[in-house]
Amino acid sequence: DVLSRVGRFEEAYTVIQAMPEKPTAKTWGALLGACRNYGEVELAEIAAKELWKVEPENPANYVLLGKIYMSVGRQEEAERLRMEMKERGVKVSPG
Q1: Which SUPFAM superfamilies does the protein's record reference (predicted)?
Q2: DSSP 8-state symbol, 20
Q3: Residues with Cβ < 8 Å from 25, sequence gap 6 or more?
Q4: Structural contact between residues 50 and 23, judged by C-beta atoms closer than 8 angstroms
C-alpha cells in the first residue's frame, strides 16, 4: 500500500507477488486505488483481474477500472468493461 501510494507500482507488485500468504482483496484493492491516482493502467488491469477472482460480483472493482480507463482516454475499453459487467450480472447500486 505504501509503495503504491508513492508511485512505486512495480515494486509494490513485486512485494505482493512475493507474499507468503495469498494476497487479499484489500491488498489488490489498495494497488488498484493507487493506480487510479497515477493513471497506471497496466497494473490496474492486473489488480482488477485478481480482484474479480476473489470478489467477482463487487461492482466497485469494475467501476474503478472503468474510471482509470476514462481518465487516460480509453473510452472504448471503459464501454467494453460496462458490457462485461452486464454479461456477468454485476449491478451498481444507485447512490
Answers
A1: TPR-like
A2: S
A3: 51, 54, 55, 58
A4: yes
pTM above 0.70, yes or no: yes
Cα–chain-centroid distance for residue 10? Answer: 15
Does residue 82 contact residue 66 with C-beta atoms inside 8 Å? yes
What cell was used for 85? 459487467
Check: CB of residue 1 under 8 Å from CB of residue 30.
yes
Please name each of the domains of the chain with its CATH number.
2-88 (1.25.40)
Q: Out of 11-20, 45-54, 76-85, pick the least confident.
A: 11-20
Residue 62's φ and ψ, nearest 5 degrees, are -70, -45
- What are the grid coordinates assigned to 62, written together? 469494475
- Which pLDDT band holds residue 37 (cuts at 50, 70, 90)? confident
Say which amino acid occupies 32.
L
